[in-house]
Amino acid sequence: MRLNLAARRISPYGASTFIIDSYLMPLRPIQIGLINTIGTWTLYQREVMRFVKILGQTVAAPMTTAVLFMAVFAVAVGDRMLDGSDLSYVVFLGPGLVMMAVL
Predict the structure, then answer these.
(1) Phi/psi at 95 (nearest 5 deg)?
(2) 1-60: per-residue pLDDT in tens?
(3) Is 49 part of any domain?
(4) What's the predicted TM-score (pTM) here?
(5) Would 35 be classed as within a structural domain?
(6) Cβ contacts of residue 66 below 8 Å, gap of 6+?
(7) Cα-flanking dihedrals φ and ψ of residue 76, to 5°?
(8) What does the DSSP assignment read for 22-47?
(9) Could you tell me which of 30, 29, 8, 6 has the C-alpha nearest to residue 17?
(10) Across the strands, what pairs with 26?
(11) Which residues face 10 on adjacent strands?
């Protein structure tokens, strides 16, 4: 193997490299600090794009399901449920439907 010292360059990843017989050989491994900021940012961007692509499945579907449950139970049970308190059935049902949509 022949080492061409004139071919030394800085790679886009920050490590110095040598071109040896048309192969890039790192002089040292890439140093990553306490937090891999490039990797973290890349992961964040990918997850946001994945979420945007499936927005209908992640947001719209649970909201539609909760609204339909609320409408059906409000019409079907509505004023017929008497439990002795001043709390209406729709107000009682709301938090449960929100938790169902979240999970």
Answers:
(1) -60, -35
(2) 454 444 555 555 555 555 555 565 556 666 777 888 888 999 999 999 999 999 888 888
(3) no
(4) 0.51
(5) no
(6) 97, 98, 100, 101
(7) -70, -45
(8) TEEEESSPPP--SS-HHHHHHHHHHH
(9) 8
(10) 17
(11) 16
